[in-house]
């Protein structure tokens, strides 16, 4: 495997950043994960647009310009011969002697890009069985709309899920409404077939997959209600699912050990999943 690290393509096993990289010391960085499907990078424009927003919100410079980054992403995909898989890219505020305040403005930001293959058959099998989620109290900061590498609450929540035999944890506000998963957005399907997901300006990450599912829903003639929903509403919904670049639309079959509907993946979720690739933007790798 090959990784890109600050201007060089290097063997993945030797890829490293300096110990004084601010990503390492302060989680002072942002990232993106893009899906690669059938040789195409999915929704690359939207991912780079969100990266631009994350960088701007944190007053961080682009490590290279947007066109150059797109070329590097393609090159990493190509060099790893990824046809189906994931691209990970991370930008940090660079390497500087440890000090909380920003380093001098001429400090170049760090850029790392990796890619890995994912077996599409394994993803399909996962969608056939669906995933289980647990709920945990929301304990993250207010700026989860920025896709930062500071993911400790998400790490702890997802570990707790794993220990409970589940695959995702939903962060829940004190009022009982679901925010999002540790690495996914949360959705339900109502009895009358509408898709419900929380408004993106209410303490969640605006998922790229979430945005594209709005387009998929329009194409399939499905109504979307952008509003908060409670854990109780999700437990009694017709379907529930999570979305991310890694999982696309993935059925949720149980919440806190309680089956959703008949405990099997729902047909609306599976139809969204099926139509997703046709609707999404496809950039040749
Ligand atoms: N919410 C959180 C907290 C995430 O970490 C992610 C993805 O990693 C998502 C939502 C889904 O976003 P996307 O669809 O862009 O992958």
UniProtKB/TrEMBL annotation:
<keyword id="KW-0100">Branched-chain amino acid biosynthesis</keyword>
<comment type="similarity">
    <text>Belongs to the class-IV pyridoxal-phosphate-dependent aminotransferase family.</text>
</comment>
<dbReference type="InterPro" id="IPR043132">
    <property type="entry name" value="BCAT-like_C"/>
</dbReference>
<dbReference type="GO" id="GO:0009082">
    <property type="term" value="P:branched-chain amino acid biosynthetic process"/>
</dbReference>
<dbReference type="Pfam" id="PF01063">
    <property type="entry name" value="Aminotran_4"/>
</dbReference>
<keyword id="KW-0663">Pyridoxal phosphate</keyword>
<dbReference type="GO" id="GO:0005829">
    <property type="term" value="C:cytosol"/>
</dbReference>
<dbReference type="InterPro" id="IPR050571">
    <property type="entry name" value="Class-IV_PLP-Dep_Aminotrnsfr"/>
</dbReference>
<dbReference type="GO" id="GO:0008652">
    <property type="term" value="P:amino acid biosynthetic process"/>
</dbReference>
<dbReference type="InterPro" id="IPR036038">
    <property type="entry name" value="Aminotransferase-like"/>
</dbReference>
<dbReference type="InterPro" id="IPR043131">
    <property type="entry name" value="BCAT-like_N"/>
</dbReference>
<comment type="pathway">
    <text>Amino-acid biosynthesis; L-valine biosynthesis; L-valine from pyruvate: step 4/4.</text>
</comment>
<protein>
    <recommendedName>
        <fullName>Probable branched-chain-amino-acid aminotransferase</fullName>
        <ecNumber>2.6.1.42</ecNumber>
    </recommendedName>
</protein>
<dbReference type="InterPro" id="IPR001544">
    <property type="entry name" value="Aminotrans_IV"/>
</dbReference>
<comment type="function">
    <text>Acts on leucine, isoleucine and valine.</text>
</comment>
<keyword id="KW-0028">Amino-acid biosynthesis</keyword>
<dbReference type="GO" id="GO:0004084">
    <property type="term" value="F:branched-chain-amino-acid transaminase activity"/>
</dbReference>
<comment type="pathway">
    <text>Amino-acid biosynthesis; L-isoleucine biosynthesis; L-isoleucine from 2-oxobutanoate: step 4/4.</text>
</comment>
